[in-house]
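User: Hi! Is it possible to get a structure for several chains at once, not just one? Here's what I have:
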Amino acid sequence: MNDVLDNLDVFLRGFRTTVSLTLLAAIGALILGTLIAAMRVSPVPPLRWAGATYVRLVRNTPLTVVFFLVVFGLPEVDVKLSFFRFALLALTVYTAAFVAEAVRSGINSVPAGQAEASRSIGMTFSQTLRLVVLPQAFANIVPPLASVFIALLKNTSIASAFFIFEGIQAMNQLIQKFGDSVLPIIAATAVGYLVLALLSAFLFGLLERAVSAGR
Amino acid sequence: MRSLPLISALPALALVLGLTACGGDKNNDKITTPVAKPSFAAGSRMADLAAAGKITVGTKFDQPLFGLKGLSGKPEGFDVEIAKIIAAKLGIAEDKITFVESVSANREPFLQQKKVDMVVATYTINDKRDKVVDFAGPYFVAGQDILVAKGNPKQITGPEALKGKKTCSVSGSTPAATVQEKYGLSTSELLLVDAYSKCRDALANGQVDAVTTDNVILSGYVSEAKDKFELVGKPFSSEPYGIGIPEGQEPFCDWINQTLKDAVADGSYEKAFKATAGKVIQETPTLPEPRGCDN
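Assistant: Yes, the chains can be modeled jointly so their relative placement is included. Here is the combined structure:
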């Protein structure tokens, strides 16, 4: 137990990267995912097709494979970024597929009359989506988005196998050094993720109440 | 390379191809044959194991040359052969050995909970570990070295020269801890992954400047691609690999040490080495002095 308490700074350094990967990838995935959902409901068939293909391809690929393709595939075509950016890219691309599906279900939950009414007063497709449909859609999908982002938090652990020092690597480093307290170190890592996940769930809970109060 | 960007980028595939290649030239000469009726003092650990007729061994499944579980489904390597030698002396046949994957994170728990009878898994003996488990051996001493791109473009001559460069190693390994603690590499200078093959690929495409771990592993990569990599060739640590057993089994530990000596005498130690790690290391090592079982 002392080995854990004496090395909280190692855990903190690791989990700081876990948090920044999660936050940045969440923002990226939210933007990319919303764009893909918009493509999927757009009136232009090629866009719909492209959006659906993206979701089908990415959602059905294991995250580890996505990481392999990004981290080892991109340098082959001379795209060389820092490993942190590679990890961010892999997590964003992967999570965007799940965000897109959540957003699409939110869009589908908005009664068709809403979109028809906006079109009939002369709004364009993008105005309809931006001003009328998406705000209502997002209010409906806070709980599924929370699940997607909590999954993202835990998915950042895959980056530990791809050059990123985060929570899991901090754990590995301490296990290596303190072979006599492996289980306390693993338990402490679990607590670290648990605290972060509960915190996100709490924040999403607040958000859910805020958006439902607004209606 | 350029014509097949994705395929050449997939280390997993390279691994698969490498393994098939290894599987092809595998000879089936048995290195050891189980002793017909070994006799041990009643109530000893050896007697128990011999009577049970089976043994559970923790080993690595992803460590080339030492413990690698390939397409054959059976782990292969020097660690595996050492385990077979010990089992044979207990009268236990190869097919009665259950190999369990033990990575760095579960070696001590497995021994403490007696999920395995022993661990032979490139397991460096150190004091922290010795507090919770016992070590027989060492049966091999590796040395940490540095792998760089052919021609050594970054002029890396030793571990001191790694500051300010990008070095790759495996997360939670002794070599990673050494360059971190002794040579002061920060987390932005030391990049860690879960398997050395990834380090090798990152070095090949220039994403890192150096790879560091035990020389045996690095030699394997040089022998695979002499035109791409070279070894700095100045080992700067000594990693004695021991056989982990649960605490408080001193007679078993002494017996393993004697068994290792016997294996050198009857040539099975050398045969085991030649069939595995000896494929990349020319000379067979001499068995290190046992460290004694009373600590």
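Residues 144-231 of chain B form a domain with the D-Maltodextrin-Binding Protein; domain 2 fold (CATH 3.40.190.10). Chain B has eleven helices and 13 strands.

User: Great, thank you!
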